[in-house]
Amino acid sequence: MVLTARMVPMLCFVLIGGAVADRIPRRTVLVAAHAGAAVAQGAVAVLLITHHYSLVVISVLSAVNGVLDAFTSPALRGMVAELVEKEQLRKANSVLSSIRNGTKIVGPAVAGVLVATVGSGPTIAVDAVSYLLAALLLSRLRVAAPMMRRTAPVNGWQEFRRIRWVWVVTASFAVMNFAQTGVWQVLGPPLTGEKLWGFTLSARGVGLLVMSAVMYRLVLRHLLRTGQILSVLGALPLVALGLGAGPVWVLGTAFAAGVGFSISGISWDTSLQEHVDRGVLSRIASIDDLLSFVAIPAGTLAAGPLADRFGARHVTLVAAVVYAAAAWSSLLVRDVRDLPHGAERGPLPRRGWSSGRSR
To answer: Are 335 and 353 in contact (CB under 8 A)?
Structure first.
């Protein structure tokens, strides 16, 4: 109930969050969202520490966090483009990805130790303090006035539909999330076994972290094309599970999947920031977030019943095929294949984006 209370408001408000981040300073949005999360998490900690647990109250606070999440992601993705010169965007996203993936490996371990030693209430209090520190750090960002906005030519949905490569890749990501995430989360643990599952997640985390570091140095002429090609690596662990492969194959393919997820995410964020007008960037990012978020719970709900009907391994193999097909289907569109990477080419002309004939 608590997780649902967070997810539903996030889905409802993410488009509003993108619109707000395009209209007022994104630093202000980020500071307010993190400060609000600090208050919400602090309130949860107080309830647990004082033994006044209430499912209803904690669900309401979780809903507040969901609303704040809806404002955070679009603002952050737009903020990077304001802070970093275009030729440094790939490196900036690589650094962000490395730190994010590193915390995914270290964070759960630290949280587990804290819960075991001091309890869940104080642990969430530490989480609240981390949000407060983030708000203070974000408040110190200095954005030059000329870089804060460019004029948004049209509304976000019209711009999203007009730029062919944007909606094509977003649609492919939605199908990929539907096919992979639910099957991986629901069927992965029983197919691998409890002991191997933890190592499998760690192997994928290492792959994410390693590729994030490599992307800092890797220079590619067509970054988006490469990201879409290598995103198919995410299907490999599903194939391994579906075929009943041994532990070595499962761990190896999980590492490869992490590599694919990392380069795909970095190439996508960088391409958006390089080629989409900053005045509408957060709105387009919010539409991307919405489609991705909706696909994940839908796939999670479908995985169990399908496995009961057709068998877990068969469903996993089909999910791998669907994932791979969705990943590579976007490459049928010339705009996706030919989108250039790098500052020297500049943003694509408005009328050329949807035609595929501007380059």
So the answer is: yes
d(CA 297, CA 292): 10
Q: Which amino acid is at 182?
A: G
Beta strands in 234-351 (DSSP E): none
Q: How far apart are CA 264 and CA 261, in angstroms?
A: 5
Report the alpha-carbon distance of residue 37 to residue 234 in Å, rounded: 32
Whether the model pTM is above 0.85? no
CA–CA gap between residue 214 and residue 136 (Å, rounded): 30
The string of pLDDT tens digits covering residues 262-312 is: 999 999 999 998 888 888 888 999 998 898 888 888 888 899 899 999 999
Distance, CA of 111 to CA of 124 (rounded, Å): 9
| CA atoms within 13 A of residue 52's CA, in its CB half-sphere | 7
Q: Which long-range contacts (CB under 8 A, 24 or more apart) does 297-302 make?
A: 297/7, 297/182, 298/178, 298/182, 299/177, 299/178, 299/179, 299/180, 299/181, 299/182, 299/183, 300/181, 300/182, 300/185, 300/186, 301/182, 302/178, 302/182
Asked if 153 and 22 touch (Cβ cutoff 8 Å), the reply is no
